[in-house]
Records
---
Amino acid sequence: MADAPGPGDGLRPQHLTTDREEEPRLGTGRSTVTGHLRLAPMTDRSADATSADQEPFEDLPEQVRVRREKRQRLVESGRPPYPNTVRRTHALAELRRTFDFQDLPPDTRTGETVSVAGRVIHLRNTGKLCFVRLREGDGTELQAMLSLADLGEESLAEYKSLVDIGDFIEVSGEVVTSRRGELSVQATGWTMAAKALRPLPNEHRPLSDEARVRQRYLDLVVNPEARAMVRTKAAVLRSLRSTLDDRGYVEVETPILQLTNGGAAARPFRTHLNAFDQQMLLRIALELDLKKALIGGVDRVYEIGRTFRNEGLDSTHAAEFSMLEAYEAYGDIESMKALLQDLVRGAARSVGRTVVSGRDGEQIDLEGPWRSAGLHELVSEALQAEVTTETPLQDLRDLADGRGVELQERWGTGEVVLELYEKLVEHTLIQPTFVQDYPESVRPLAKPHPSKPGLVEAFDLIVNGVELAPAYTELNDPVIQRERLVEQSLLAAGGDPEAMDLDEPFLRAMEHGMPPAGGMGMGVDRLVMLLTGAGIRETILFPLLRPE
RNA sequence: GCGCCAUUAGCUCAAUUGGCAGAGCAGCUGACUCUUAAUCAGCGGGUUCGCGGUUCGAGUCCGCGAUGGCGUACCA
């Protein structure tokens, strides 16, 4: 609230830009009718520069000017630059599948006549024989050859003068192999499928990091790794769903717009619902609504969805990210361990990477055994000194001091042990490890451990030094739940009872009885990062960026 | 938040001590019926991120700002 931007400066300039420049263009694009009608005036270069809504033609980069002129020539020569569709009998991949394994000798004529389409990524125009390489979405490429003999003078001349790298074109003809033995379509005709007005970037040098993110669509055209990432993430999502579905979990969707935030402690994004004249928040977690579903009898329930946290951004944190949360009635942390192993291993198999490289070069075999270790045990190992729930606060503080770990004054033993773990241990846990037996004070929504006083049934799955998924035997005592939420809310409100923001509908639901349950939440992007070794900005297709 | 580094043609990058702003790809004109980062000949393309300053002269030095990267801090 205090940090909300004032109603002026930051927003205003953007607004002006939108009004002046974007709107007229949107108008052209959105309405098919006017869109077509307005094609012609584009050539009207004399359109006085006073109409500031369109960049003057003369100011455009040379290569855009050239392509716009070609577009216009296409219109005038009766070859629409953007036809509704073009004939296409085979995907490039289909032809590759059919012919690649036939080992055709050079100069073969297959007798098969096809129409193919794709983006032009390579052009070789010689006098009487032209080569063009087409690429389709997954990166499959196929060459076409356009010869004077087969096309005739006019068609070939038009092709040479109107087709650029970056355009989508259709080529029909016979499937052949070239004199060099390359599978090709020997063209008898071509059509423009969609004219590109801007050049593709240099294929042979990687785009700068910023360009790759800002113009991901170009990264996808030019960079096989970017194409693979999109498909890897999709495969991971499919695998997660199928693992859960196979176990009888039911997928649900719960509201992204919330009245109060719960399930995590992060600063939310704020927005406004006009119909109720109500301030709303974007969810920071899925937990509370999924528990309501559990209360209602959706005994195995999960959601995969976007959550939003208004916090700092870095190579492992994004403002919006995908989360999987799953809750299982009559489950506990042990069933969550089994579920997580299935989920992670299933995802790894689905992308063919069950052994991945750790940050320190160590290999991580996800099919191998996963360790379970107590928090105090791990901290003791790191400190070479026995630490238990009985260790006095002052001793812990001395140990932290000796290792240069800074502590906050108000912390108790639980927080101090957790801090020691996070600073000294977490990043060293490369192999899959369930870190468990947390002090009650640092995991307020988990149930007490049945045999270890002061500890709760909760774990964090750590792989490659990164937290992948926390899980609890979920607290379902509505009285304690209310106490904890009140505590949390008071803390968040800075001790001001008036500013407390309790989720009463959730508490009321809890009072109707929630079955004993295990629950967990997994960062989907982090799983993809683990399986690919990429940073979070690579796993998110269009990460948030400041306006240019 | 703080610190360091970067920003030059459509893309990726050069530019010596402050002294005419360049290359490869891409583009344009021409040659070439087997190219595939083709080759050959010729040509065009710049608000050097923005605003100010120092200087005879600034891509280069100084100040402020913008954007990005890295580090660091904060973060159920």
Note: Chain A has a mean pLDDT of 85.
---
Amino acid sequence: MSKQELPIIDARMDTPGAACCAPLACEPLSESEAVELAPLFKAIADPVRLRLLSLIACHEDGETCVCDLTAAFDLTPPTISHHLKVLKQAGLIDSERRGTWVYYWIEPAVLARMSALIGPASPALAGTA
Amino acid sequence: MSKQELPIIDARMDTPGAACCAPLACEPLSESEAVELAPLFKAIADPVRLRLLSLIACHEDGETCVCDLTAAFDLTPPTISHHLKVLKQAGLIDSERRGTWVYYWIEPAVLARMSALIGPASPALAGTA
DNA sequence: TGCCTGCTTCGATGAGCTTCTAATCAACGG
DNA sequence: CCGTTGATTAGAAGCTCATCGAAGCAGGCA
């Protein structure tokens, strides 16, 4: 460990004003912005990781034990651990060990920014219909 | 063409009530839902495709010529064409040939649904204010 | 202390993805 | 009709990624 544990930081989200107000359709993404944003979507561009994220997000306690996550898939624990690591490195989730078990929870900020980026230019008409 | 041009249809978005109101955090994604949703995010999980989408979305005419897109990258036309094909197969863009040039435009519905999926759990308080 | 359970890391393998060059298809002009 | 320009398709090379088995680490219990 201690190699590349730092979460991905994207340029556009660093500038405070642009964080929530510069979706895809407002102005063209620069190459560096795209290079930093793409891995965030790549992190959720996998069925297993999408379900992992959903399972963690839906848990009413706000956090989920790895054992529960592993049980929901036909995959070996190393594979689940790998996917959780990818999500964690993207900054989408965080984890803590408490005694025997490790718990994961959602880090909603990055997900919300990704949603805003691809969302409609005027968020007013987002949830309607 | 005329081979596999059909866009990806995801289960959750077919059910009318769940389309806009079932983000990740509401209830766990089923495996089949995740399998159908993941390719949508994979389509935009590439810096080139993210910039292509942004360039097309930002064009004030609502559509963009391929020649303009190719000029914006240090990539060969076949590579741009490949990425456009991926976006088109995901249903994110559509295209039409008018004379010599081919024009692409955004298909905003799928993008909006993806945004809603990963967006905040209660879309009602998103833009209403 | 020693063992057992839960989770992660390591190393390898097979599939998929990005990119290129070469070739093909479509439209326009002389 | 033929040549030129714009765009896509076909095929291949190189790289990344998902998955597994084996091994390692951390915490609890007798």
Note: Residues 46-121 of chain A form a domain with the Arc Repressor Mutant, subunit A fold (CATH 1.10.10.10).
---
Amino acid sequence: MLAADRPTPEVSLVTQLRAYLAQANLPEDRRLPPERELAGLIGVSRAELRKALDVLEQEGEIWRHVGKGTFVGGRPLDTFADIGALARRSNPTEVMRARLAMEPELARSAAFMATPADIAEMRLCLARSRQAETWRQYEGWDTRLHRTVAEATHNALLLGLFDTLNAVRRAVTWGRLRVQPVKPAPDHHSFAEHERIVQAIEDRDVAGAATAMRTHLQTVERKLLARQDQPSEG
Amino acid sequence: MLAADRPTPEVSLVTQLRAYLAQANLPEDRRLPPERELAGLIGVSRAELRKALDVLEQEGEIWRHVGKGTFVGGRPLDTFADIGALARRSNPTEVMRARLAMEPELARSAAFMATPADIAEMRLCLARSRQAETWRQYEGWDTRLHRTVAEATHNALLLGLFDTLNAVRRAVTWGRLRVQPVKPAPDHHSFAEHERIVQAIEDRDVAGAATAMRTHLQTVERKLLARQDQPSEG
DNA sequence: GCTTAAACCAAGATGAAATTGGTTTAGCAT
DNA sequence: ATGCTAAACCAATTTCATCTTGGTTTAAGC
């Protein structure tokens, strides 16, 4: 381009762009023309335009995404976490790792925050799971025990995260048939491990609660890897 | 079809279908062939097949959806984690506690799984955050650093949980304006703390990474409680 | 050296066509 | 009439090819 086109080089392209953004009436979604087009409109090279857009993006005045375009304003936050999509991208191994990352910390927090009512419910779940006549019943009480621990943190966000994790776990684990006609053996590893978790929480043993939960989940992981016909719950 | 093909009409089509479901090895998603095809396979009319499928659906053994297909097992729960509702029930304190529960474990896992590319991106975020000219810019790089750590776990589920946590954090923190004209001081506590986190991850020091992240978040928590006019990020 | 234009890439949008469960209709045999 | 079958039709959904778009690389040009 000729020098005469830009008689005032001290007026930076960034400023020029800001002026354009203010003047141009953009569509409802505040999307501005594609870079190639915009470069032609303003009369600069695409590379130069992009450098200016980089600045505006750093400033937070615009946001860009490949395939979508460039938009004025802050990046919109998606208000929903899609469990299904998450489950599709994940797998049983990842679920196990995620449980190992989260649940010990939930147990730790529960040991701090649990009320007597929380602990009573945990003990109820323990007892019912021992009385279970089928694996399905056992799984129900097992799931409820783990959720009670999450509830005992008395933190709505942590509980929500646990529920999300749990929903993904169920979605991921769904396919595998578990035709276990027999009921859990009285010496099933989970009974003692669950007991230790609840006891640690009752004793306000924060480190012990986390450790007990981690140990428990590691056992579940080992069984899960060894034999696919075992329930994946724990 | 000839009567000879079905010499035992008392064996209902439903039973026959159940046998088929047990025997056939279905794809990962447990989807069975389209009705038209399945009808041909079994050798019955589509109408008759559908009547049997109706029973199985009633029993809860399968579920169907137009355009999708027919699947064995329970209908997947289409629960979306509602970030907005979660944010409404939560508060900054809970968010902080949730970060303290999750992010050290993410750092620990990242120390295991991070690739050189992950670490390079972390270092980039570090450098940019130091160069930030405004708090807004700093926050952007800080957020990106923390998310890179979550990415470095190479666990889609953990990343999803982190994103959910982060979305709630942003939603909860929404109201508070932070008009901090000055840029972060060169000795801002987070610089050194972030550096320690990344270094531990690079050194494959799993315990150190978790500890560094916990220490960092505790500092953020302290600052947050002491002075509301500080950025809540860290 | 620096800029520019062009090519290339992968993520996302778009739209036509095919697929699929659900429903209706017409034919046909009993 | 009754009951079954095949075919057509419908709307929801997937699939696939194509286009768009920001991001990146490359090489020519000055």
Note: Residues 34-36, 50, 53, 64-70 of chain B lie near DNA strand C (CB under 10 Å from a C1').
